[in-house]
Automatic annotation (TrEMBL):
<feature type="domain" description="EAL">
    <location>
        <begin position="23"/>
        <end position="279"/>
    </location>
</feature>
<protein>
    <submittedName>
        <fullName>Diguanylate cyclase (GGDEF) domain-containing protein</fullName>
    </submittedName>
</protein>
Length: 281
């Protein structure tokens, strides 16, 4: 029994050190990637429910890894957060997304009021460089601050309410829009939501996914939309994959959609190619 136990400990140690090695290598590669422009920003359209026209995009980062191929955020955002690299990574994404927005607004007729949503981690929000970075990016790219939306998860607000409130107020003063991401998956109360100067709620994909199959999901979505109405916030449903979901969401009062049904995240040069999409000014 003793021998067996020791064997197991060794196996455990080996897999642990392999995992550690993988993590350390990923961190080194990521540091390099940020400097070498290996990060690519994909864009996914956000459409208006009534007209189905594109009103904005969400910027979603990818990593064009030299040997591992195109990596999704799940493969490296956690490492970026643990190592603090999320701060320079986030700044690089913000600059790239706002530069793209600025170009589309200038060059595409009818796109003057197009919006860009950028995801922000709790760690970025907490970092003293964040507000100056946002201000500098707005300045450099010469965009209207109101056309930039920052998406912040519900859970990142709960971690430190005081700090989050201060950051929200500073961003609000800059004139940027604020959206609460993955809404419904955390624990914020109504009263608590009222404390933050925000303009939109994003209904988490998990609820949209359950629509049509689970009557409870419809009740939750309806409640979220009710909350948004009360607080005069926009609602964006994420993960809309088919017309049935879009229909049901419309019936529940949702006004903005995002999901594979309207467009998958894709590089900037792949946008605006479908003939059916139009723009509202
Ligand atoms: P999120 O902010 O909730 O973004 C939505 C995710 O849902 C994206 O995954 C998107 O590709 C995916 N999605 C959109 N429509 C559909 C659909 O119809 N069906 C399905 N099944 N999925 C859909 P992605 O691009 O893999 O990003 C995952 C998460 O990584 C994001 O979740 C966000 O939390 C994080 N992330 C992405 N880019 C950044 C970034 O630049 N900075 C930070 N801090 N986080 C980021
Ligand atoms: Ca998001
Ligand atoms: Ca989500
Ligand atoms: Ca998320």
């Amino acid at each position: 029994a003793k021998q067996k136990g020791r064997g197991r400990v060794e196996i455990f140690d080996e897999s642990l050190s392999a995992a550690l090695e993988h993590r350390v290598r990923t961190e080194q590669d990521l540091r390099n990637a940020i400097q070498c422009d290996e990060l690519v920003v994909f864009y996914q359209p956000i459409v208006e429910a009534d007209t189905r026209s594109i009103v904005g995009f969400e910027a979603l980062v990818r990593w064009q890894h030299p040997t591992r191929g195109l990596l999704a955020p799940d493969a490296f955002i956690p490492v970026a957060e643990e190592s603090g690299l999320i701060v320079p990574l986030g700044a690089a994404v913000l600059l790239q997304a706002c530069s793209q927005l600025s170009q589309w607004q200038r060059e595409r007729p009818g796109c003057e009021r197009l919006r860009m949503s950028v995801n922000v981690s709790a760690l970025q929000l907490d970092h003293p460089s964040f507000i100056p970075t946002v201000a500098a990016v707005i300045e450099t790219t010469d965009i209207d601050p109101a056309s930039l939306w920052l998406e912040i998860t519900e859970t990142s607000l709960v971690a430190d309410v005081e700090r989050a409130t201060a950051a929200f107020e500073a961003l609000h003063d800059l004139g940027v829009g604020l959206a609460l991401d993955d809404f419904g998956t955390g624990y914020s109360s109504l009263a608590y939501l009222q404390k933050f100067p925000m303009q939109a709620l994003k209904i988490d994909r998990s609820f949209v996914d359950r629509l049509g199959r689970d009557p409870e999901a419809a009740v939750i979505v309806e409640m979220i939309i009710g909350v948004a109405r009360t607080l005069r916030l926009l609602v964006i449903a994420e993960g809309v994959e088919n017309e049935e979901q879009a229909d049901e969401l419309y019936g529940l009062g949702c006004t903005l959609y995002q999901g594979y049904h309207f467009g998958r995240p894709a590089p900037a040069e792949k946008q605006w190619q479908e003939s059916g999409t139009s723009i509202v000014a």
